[in-house]
Amino acid sequence: MTPGSRWAQVRRAGLYLLVSLASAVVTVLALPLLCIPRLTRFWANWHRDRAGWLLGAPMGPDHAPRATGRRAWTDAATGRTSRALLWLPVNATAGLAFGLPALLCVGNIVTALIATPLWWAFRPEGRPRLFIDVPVTDWRTALVLGPLQIIVLSALAYGGFPPIARAHARLCLTTLSHTPAGQLAERVAVLTRTRADVLDAHSAELRRIERDLHDGTQARLVAIAMRLAVARQAFSDHPRDDRFLEGLLRDAHEGTEEAMTELREVIRSVYPPILADRGLDGALTAVTTRCGVPTRLDIDELARVPAAVEAVVYFAVAEALTNVTRHSQATAASVRLSRRADRLSVVITDDGTGGADDRRGTGIAGIRRRVLALDGAVDVDSPVGGPTAITLELPCGW
C-alpha cells in the first residue's frame, strides 16, 4: 500500500470514528425517541451502511420479506427491531470508547497547529498547552513541542485509526447481523422476491414480443400477401402490363426484407443468436468491439457455462458498456471473466466520473434483477468522481 492510499485510509477511518462518537452522543440524548421501532431500525440501518462503507462491503437495505406470509413478515420485523434495540446501548458505549481517542488525537493535532505559530496572540493566563499540560510561553517551546506533538499524534493516527475503525465496524455488523435462522429467512425472502420480479419481467417480455410480432412483422406479412394477391390477379387480367407487376413485386420484396429484419430483432431480444453462433467469448468480443469506449476483454478458462448464465452475462455486459458510453465520460473500460469452482465472476470497470445509481434509471437495476434471478450477487462501487466497478457473481455449477 502506498503512503498516499494509507493516509486516505487514515482520513476515512478518522471521519468514521468522529461520526461514531457524534452518533453515540445522539443515541444517549435521544434514547426515548430512538426506541420507536421504525426510528430504531432506521438508525441501525444507517450504522450498517456506514460499517459496510468502511469495510468495503456495502450492505443492502434490511428489508422485511415479501410474499412469504404475514407471520413471516412480522417475525422478520420483530427480529430486526430487537437487534436494533440491542444496538442502541452497544452504539452508545462503543461510540464513546472508540471515538473519544480519535477526537483527542485530532483535537490535539489542531491545537498544536494553532499553538505553534500563534501562541503569542493569547493572553498570558490563556496560553495554549501542548502535551496536555505544557504551557507555550516562548518561541522555543512552540517550535520544539508543537511539531513534536503533531508528529507523535499523526503517527498514532496513522497506525491506530484504521484498525480501531474496522473493529467498531465489525462490532456493528456482528450486533446487527441475522441469526442463522434469520439469514435463511432473509435468503428465502430475497429469492421469492426476485423470482416474482422475474415472472413479472417475463410476462412483460412475452407481451412485448406478441405486440412486436402482431403490430410489426404480422402486419408486413399481411401487406406482402395482399400485394402478391393483387399481382396474381393483375397477371391474370393484364398479362402484358409488366411495369405494374414489377412495382407490386418490388414492394412485396422490400416488405419481405423489412419483415425479416424485424423478426431477427425480436429473436435477438429473446436469446442473442450470436451466443449460439460464437459462444460467450465471441459474443462478448463483439460487444466490447462495438463499445464507444476502448474496452479490454479478459476471459479466463470458463469450461461449460449454462445457457441461462451466458445470456445474463451477455445482456449485463452489453447494458453496462452502454452506460459507460452514454453516461460515464470514460476514456477506457475493461471486462474480466473468471471462474472459481462453481462461481462465475464478471467485473466491469471504467475510469469515468462514477456516481452510478440504480434509482436514476442507469440500467443497473435491470442488471441486478437478471443476476438475482439466478441466485447471483451484484456489487456496484461507483463513488462520485470515479472510477466505477460493477462485480457480478453467478452460480454456474448446475
Q: How many separate helices?
A: 10
Radius of gyration: 32 Å
Query: What is the terminal separation in angstroms?
Result: 39 Å
Task: Tell me the total number of β-strands.
Answer: 7
Helix/strand-derived category reads: alpha+beta
User: Are there runs of 5+ residues with pLDDT below 50, and where?
Assistant: 60-77
**Domains (count):** 3
Outline, from the CA principal axes?
A: elongated
Q: Beta fraction of the residues?
A: 5-15%
The percentage helix is 55-70%
Average pLDDT, all residues: 76
Strand order of the largest sheet: 3-4-5-7-6
Question: Describe the biggest sheet?
Answer: 5 strands, mixed
Q: What is the N-to-C succession of helices and strands?
A: HHHHEEHHHHEHEEHEE
EC number: 2.7.13.3
Organism: Micromonospora lupini str. Lupac 08
InterPro entries: HATPase_C_sf (IPR036890), HATPase_dom (IPR003594), Put_sensor_dom (IPR025828), Sensor_HK_TwoCompSys (IPR050482), Sig_transdc_His_kin_sub3_dim/P (IPR011712)
Pfam families: HATPase_c, HisKA_3, Sensor
Short description:
With about 400 residues, the protein is of the alpha+beta class. The chain has helices at about 5-30, 30-35, 35-55, 70-120, 140-175, 180-235, 240-270, 275-290, 305-330, 365-375, and strands at about 130, 135, 295-300, 335-340, 345-350, 375-380, 390-395. It has a five-stranded mixed beta sheet, covered by helices on one side.
Can you describe what's shown?
- It is a single chain.
- It is elongated and about 120 Å long.
- With 398 residues, it is an alpha+beta fold.
- The chain has three domains: 3-177, no CATH class; 192-270; 273-395, Heat Shock Protein 90 (2-Layer Sandwich).
- The two termini are 39 Å apart.
- The longest helix is centred in the middle third of the chain and has 58 residues, at 180-237.
- Helix content is 69%, strand content 10%.
